[in-house]
Design brief:
By secondary structure, the chain is α/β, with parallel strands linked by helices. It contains 17 helices and 14 strands. The radius of gyration is 25 Å and the shape is globular.
Amino acid sequence: MKDQAAKELDPTEFDWTTLLRGSDAELELAWMHVEMNDRKEDLSELGWLLQGIRKKLQVYQEAFPDKQFELDLEAAFTQQTDLLQQRVDGYENKLEACDLDAYLSLKYEIRLLFKQLGAILAGSDWQSPCKRLGSAAPDISAEAGFAQEEEGTYMRSYGSETVKQYEEASIEAFYSLSEGLLKQSVGFLTSSGMKALELALFSYKSITQQTMPFYFQKGFYGEGVDLATMLLNAPLEVDPEAIYTKVEANETIGGLLVDPGVCWPVRPAIDLARLFEGLAHHKQNAPLYVIVDRTLTSIANPLFVRYADRLPDHVVLISVESGIKYLQYGFDLANVGCLVALGRALESAEHREKWVSLLSLLDAGADPVTVRQLPEPDLKRVTSRLCRLNRNAYWMDAFLRHMVREGKVASFYHSVEPSSQFMLKGQPWIGSLFYIQLPGERTEQDYQAWIDRFVAAAPEEEHFVSGGSFGFDTFRMNAVTDATGKETALRVSIGRDPLVQLLWKLRYMYRHM
């Protein structure tokens, strides 16, 4: 039997009635040790982000070593970085002052520095830089940027070394490809998650000529379905059970488009373990492209580590992911996506070059201005951040279960169902998104009007936000509907609040729903 302290930390055994009707003093006394540890973790993240600013300043110093205007800008950026570091240091000695509002205030100022410095570093780039054939005289203007490494190619033609270096670091950090797997793969940083999907679909179509059926999962997100329908010849919508049946029956298949996460309207997610078990025994002479959208499951879904070794020679496994959701530390800095494709066919340099050609043709690669603004890819930091979101999601789940029992919520759903397939530090990842239906029939407009009233009336320091997307530090809400407008819900993206502040937030929500 769990002792009382363990029960207090377990959201499934927590006394919600006492919390929701109790006082702030009782909550603070029982939970402040957890809250303070969360705040220490928050400040550690801010310190790491400021180290990233200093690294960008080193690049800036190398790019602009002698012109007075740029030297003055460097001094201003350095001074601002030092001031922000002083504030972080001050909060480390006074944790009680570093609540969510103080943390976000500091973080958003750091975000602005990333944007400003990145834009200046890429500000002198030429889209088609010339070749350097000798040492240029310092007083002669050159048709290449100060910090621009690439030469003699168009930016859109996969010509930016800045992008390639960040791309390589991202794939190493977030996809865990062994040296052997790297030899049979390609990976790209794209201008958005949708562009990553577009590149995957175009590659499938152009390389295979789409001579066999292509199936997309019922419940795949709407924009992705629209894109597949627009680009491919008569793709077919089928539910996951039909996909398993076709694979296990060894039917001839050209391509599959699937998502192990859940969008709105809620439909069954693909079971990757069952799908890849079937694919391991699938046989056909022509290639089979399997495109998995990893956005909702992100780093908790080690696709290639788990399934690559058992892929038959004809299968090409492609992961596409939006990098703006869970991989930008809550900054929402710039649209960027990731695509990694792996299969025996990609051992051929000629085949890999086809992907690069399509990337260039579609102008799908990330822009150097974007990449210069991003913090460095760091698996440890992203894991720590997603563990906080996951911890808060479990509390939200328990809270919503209580709300269902009290009749304040009719039903709710996760974006990722708990599974051993998606783990973060020993705990199943359930995603930071919830789809919530309130009692009674409500239109999308009804839900959005409720959200806007709720957010407008809430104290600003609670940081409730009326807005879409997810992966932020704040608690975001927006209305969602299906294509017919009949299935509607409130979509909530849980934030990274320290625990006590999260519980205050949930209590406020309880009292005002």
